[in-house]
Amino acid sequence: MTSEYLSRPLRTVAQARAEIALAKRPRYISTKEAAVLLRKQLKVKWPAVKFSVRFESYSMGSHINVRWTDGPTQRDVEQLSDAYGGDRFDGMIDMQYASESWLLPDGSVAWAGTTGTEGSKGVVAASDSEPPCPGAARVRISGSRPSCSREISPAFEAKCLEEWNGLTPERQIELLREVHFPRWPEERPGYRYAIYMAEGSR
Question: Whole-model pTM?
């Protein structure tokens, strides 16, 4: 046992540091893998809603498309899915930058951090976070943040039209002046109000 141990080649300090750095390097997750993880988490969060989760690859990258009808607001789904894409963009300097996420034991994903763009005169500050729970693994997810789109069914539109008609004229005018829809088509106020509610704006 002792002779076998002594016969092993000794590691240099540089080699040991390189091994530690390699162990700390985040694991790579493809956009396809991320889509599978996201689909599972959406089903856990909203089991009664049918989501379409597809990934697309193109010459300059990849991303996930999420589609569903009625159900949760677009803001809620965007909040859950945001960490399932590691490529971000700083429009102030027209530069793409990377972020990392935590892969939790239950398969969910949480924001981990980014090096930001301030070093390149951008506006995104560097950030980092501790593992949110034991067993969380740091990962680098390929692709930009998922694109989320909520469809509105005729039944939901009719329900929103009924609610719209029940609002006071003052409240209707207040909503008509919202930044989201400065000019609502008079023939479909229920549809516009449905979009307003679907975005989680109230």
Answer: 0.72
